[in-house]
Design brief:
Distance between the termini: 32 Å
Oligomer: single chain
Structural class: alpha/beta
Shape: globular
Radius of gyration: 29 Å
Number of strands: 21
Helix content: 25-40%
Low-confidence stretches: 381-385, 601-612
Bound molecules: adenosine-5'-diphosphate, magnesium ion
Length: about 650
């Protein structure tokens, strides 16, 4: 049934749901709560300042309302809870005024300001609290539809269908309830035990199906015919010998693997993990060269424009003696230039195209794309192949990731990829010295900066990141600029870069930093990934606690890019213990493991996960044990059992796995 048929959903609401991919009641029922509140009367005597409070009582005096402007208002009234007489404040509920009178019985949920004998309510409900605690599901709002509305709509569904995917023997093994009850319990749990049973079912199901897809991809890979090339190793070695440096052992190992993959008829699907600065780019360049030699086009996708342009200038330099056409394609190119690139790609007048997501927009048609490389893969999410799915092309695929993840996790989530690691750093690198300072010790940081400036070295200054608000980030950048100008404005040039600048402005600043005109570059995290300026020897990161460890590690990797001693200064008044790890190690594997323990997978795979890792109900970290079990069960079924006995699973796999 389509959700438009439900009571309480008008065309406008329906459209919002549909935009979010929720079209039928069955879709709606698989939109699960992300957490639960337990609504139970608080004992006010146990509460301290600012504790959460849930309480019912009687309104004692008529409410007063203050309007600040059109959008803001505040209502206050006196409230009797039996043992105490309290003040209540609630914002932006003026519309409830008519219903709140002396004697009204209400339930309030909010914060207890004990000092002022006041409840700052976030929610008002009419009537008394139920006598037993209520478990209340909380949903992520969907473009303006609140959790409460979603809850009510879901409660109004009286029939829906489920598909039971899990084979009976596994349901028995884990004593799982049936799926329909599981879904019902998760939306409307009558007690904690039933909620748990519902969650167990749905989490296991989600992870089991995920693992089934992953592993069947891997098992099928042997049959997957890709492009076959026949590249002469001598030609490649000549290129390698002409490079300005000699490759590390790990770089060479990766190249050998890639050479083999590309020359064989199996389709390559390989991830190169290597710490920041370990030299992954050159491995990508060589892969592109092999691909070029066999007559195919290659694409290199970067997460940011800055990085795309850096790759462009790098590749043009490395290939300057070769007749290889390299261009760039990003969202911010002028329409005319984009069209020109599209045309030349289609005619194979471009051999290597570098860019952002724009490389795979619908308008791009390749003549014969043979290789796709995704740089800083963790920024995009795990599986990018779905981007290629609709293009009807089957290029070889290489991912580069600078967020190395612990092996057990890697094997589990990268189920269908081959993984190689670069652990050796290029010769002559010095370990970056990292220090942690309080805001009150800013003088120390400025002194360290001064020493580097005297040596004609360059410095990155990173403004605190505030995810929710570009505007505040901007203010932070401006404030830092003032500070830095006061300290160093007389002796060197200071540049600023942030996400709100247009491409030309960014380019100009980046160019000036690269050629040494700008000594101090103040920036938000737009410079985070991949940027390579060898003379930059110091990075100062303000409010470092706002970043995950892996992200800090990435940022730190902007310096220490040659044999000069480099420094990282972390400034933070908070979470000093967590940040201290940064001062003790520069091993990205260790840091990501620590991050994983502390923050879960979110940070590991980038701010926002996409594609396959977007679980509806399972949580990668907290449910890791279920994940491991689900993986074993999936592998057993695929290798020892007979999947054909389970037509629903076969259909699911056929529908989803054929990405190519
Ligand atoms: P990342 O792995 O972080 O992407 P890059 O590929 O940007 O690192 O490499 C970092 C720097 O090290 C670049 O300036 C690159 O030219 C240089 N580099 C890469 N490999 C070697 C090597 N084998 N010897 C010396 N320098 C190298
Ligand atoms: Mg890189």
């Amino acid at each position: 049934m389509e959700i438009g048929m439900l009571k309480g959903i008008g065309p406008k609401t329906e459209k919002l749901f549909v935009n979010a991919g929720i079209i039928t009641t069955n879709d709606l029922m698989s939109y699960y709560p992300f957490r639960y509140d337990i609504i139970k009367r608080s004992n006010i005597n146990d509460l301290i300042q600012d504790d959460k409070i849930v309480i019912d009582g009687v309104v004692e005096g008529n409410p007063n309302i203050f309007f600040f402007n059109k959008k803001m208002n505040k209502m206050t009234f006196r409230f009797n809870i039996g043992s105490h007489l309290l003040n209540v404040t609630i914002f932006n509920r003026a519309f409830l005024k008519a219903k709140i009178n002396v004697g009204s019985i209400l339930t309030l949920i909010g914060k207890y300001d004990k000092l002022h004998n006041t409840i700052v309510a976030s929610d008002i409900r009419f009537g008394k609290l139920p006598s037993i605690p209520v478990i209340e599901p909380i949903y992520h709002s969907i473009s303006g539809i609140s959790s409460n509305q979603i809850k009510n709509i879901i409660n109004s569904v009286d029939d829906f269908d489920v598909i039971e995917y899990i084979p009976d023997y596994l349901k028995d093994k884990y004593k799982l309830i049936d799926k329909k009850s599981a879904v019902t319990n998760v939306h409307n749990p009558s007690n904690l035990n039933l909620l748990k049973q519902g969650q167990n079912y749905l989490k296991y199901e989600e992870l089991f199906l995920f693992m089934l897809k992953m592993n069947s991809l891997k098992l099928n890979k042997k049959n997957k015919i890709g492009l076959k090339r026949n590249v002469d190793r001598d030609v490649l070695d000549k290129f390698i010998n002409n490079l300005p440096f000699s490759l590390t052992i790990d770089q060479l190992n990766c190249i050998n693997k890639i050479f083999y993959d590309l020359n064989s008829e199996n389709r390559m699907n390989r991830l190169i993990q290597g710490d920041v600065g370990s030299g992954k780019t050159i491995v990508a360049v060589i892969a592109l060269y092999i691909n070029y030699l066999s007559g195919y086009q290659g694409a290199l996708m970067a997460p940011t424009e800055v990085l795309a342009y850096q790759h462009l200038s790098n590749l043009r330099k490395l290939f300057k003696d070769y007749d290889i056409n390299i261009e760039v394609l990003t969202g911010s190119l002028k329409q005319k230039d984009k069209k020109d690139i599209y045309k030349r790609l289609e005619k194979h007048e471009i051999d290597i195209i570098i860019g952002t997501h724009a490389l795979f927009s619908d308008d791009v048609i390749y003549s014969n794309l043979g290789l796709v490389i995704t740089d800083e893969q963790h920024r995009f999410g795990v599986n990018q192949r779905s981007n290629l799915k609709n293009k009807g092309i089957t290029p070889d695929i290489l991912y580069l990731s600078a967020t190395p993840i612990p092996r057990t996790y890697a094997l589990t989530i990268y189920g269908d990829m081959d993984v190689s690691s670069i652990k050796t750093m290029p010769n002559g690198r010095k370990e970056i010295i990292t220090v942690l300072k309080k805001n009150s010790e800013i003088k120390d940081a400025l002194l360290l900066m001064y020493e580097e400036i005297k040596l004609k070295h360059q410095i990155y200054v990173i403004a605190p990141l505030i995810e929710e608000s570009d505007k505040i980030s901007l203010e932070n950048v401006n404030e830092l600029e003032e500070k830095m100008t006061r300290a160093f404005g007389k002796i060197c040039k200071i540049g600023v870069m942030h996400g709100k600048m247009d491409k030309n402005e960014k380019d100009k600043v980046m160019e000036e930093f690269k050629n040494g005109e700008i000594t101090i570059l103040i920036s938000t995290t737009v410079i985070e990934v991949g940027v390579d300026v060898k003379n930059a020897t110091m990075i100062v990161i303000f409010d470092a606690y706002r970043f995950g460890l892996s992200q800090l590690h990435q940022l730190r990797g902007r310096v220490g890019r040659n044999d000069i001693q480099s420094y990282c200064v972390l400034i933070s008044d908070k979470e000093v213990e967590r940040l201290d790890i940064m001062t003790k190690t520069t091993d990205g594997f260790k840091i990501s493991e620590e991050d994983f323990k502390l923050r879960g997978s979110g940070d590991l795979f980038g701010v926002r996960q996409s594609g396959d890792m977007n679980f509806r109900i399972a949580d990668f970290k907290n449910d890791f044990n279920i994940l491991v079990r689900a993986k074993e069960d999936a592998l057993d079924l695929l290798t020892k059992g007979n999947i054909n006995n389970y037509p629903k699973l076969v259909k699911l796999l056929n529908d989803s796995v054929n990405l190519d």
